[in-house]
Amino acid sequence: MNKDFLSILDLDGVEIERTISDALRLKGMKARGEAHELLRAKSLGMIFEKASTRTRVSFEAGMADLGGHALFLNPQDMQLGRGEEIRDTARALSRYLDGVMIRAYRHATIEEYARYSSIPVINGLSDTEHPCQVLADIMTIRERFGSPDGLRIAWVGDGNNVCNSLILSSALTGMEISVASPPAYRPKERVVERAKAAGGRIRICTAPPDAVRDADVIYTDIWVSMGDEAERAERMRAFTGYTVDEGLVERASSGAVVMHCLPAHRGEEITDAVLEGPHSIVWDQAENRLHAQKALLVRLMTGAGVPEEH
Ligand code: CP
Ligand code: NVA
User: Which parts of the sequence belong to the Aspartate/ornithine carbamoyltransferase carbamoyl-P binding domain (predicted)?
Assistant: First the structure.
């Protein structure tokens, strides 16, 4: 097991499977009201350069469930905001904490932090990946379909951070992914090549109906990610025709589900009818952030999975 979780590829296929099995057990324990304080007296620092609802609350509630503690750290309130170097922050916090989660604009910031941190570092979203999201998504897909292996997943919209982690995950799970994006917003070639080199099956196309044909899962995300706000007008133009609506969902397999990492912009990347409709599993996805991250935290902070007696 790697020290850090910066990319979904920091777990191999076996580790993904074990982490999700642990997450499912932790979910059952929580539902039954059974204590599972596996990280008693451990502390997680959470550095957020950008906004968050799900990531912040699921990590904080997860640490509380596990008997530990989470600290919300706004860089503007830290010496980081006054120019202290990342490498100095990383070494100081390593002396107090048992793990750090960072949401940053630049992936390189998280990589630099991890280089100097002697405790596990978790990527809570960067410009290139959102591995915690995709770990929870694989769990949600497994709950729904039994196994992700052999499933077809269609990504419709921006080839962004969530899309990248999903593409990379296809190398670990056996899912085949088709991405429909306007040519200027396709996922980065190096991400696709990396996924293919690791055994992933990826198809890139332009028209959403081509991607969703025979799909078991349709996945979309906002057209204007955090940090892309200045491009809003041109993105709105470029993504016209990429809305996941009922007509598009009808073109997928009959039992297809619709996923969205949230937050959603109804009427842009997804219609209200689809988000609230029978195919949508977005609230299960959001819930599973909690369970998947708890399982991840236990592995990273203890070096082991959830013990059998739990
Ligand atoms: N999906 C997700 O990461 O949501 P937040 O931005 O609310 O954390
Ligand atoms: N792609 C989105 C995901 C938000 C959870 C963003 O980066 O803003």
Answer: 3-143
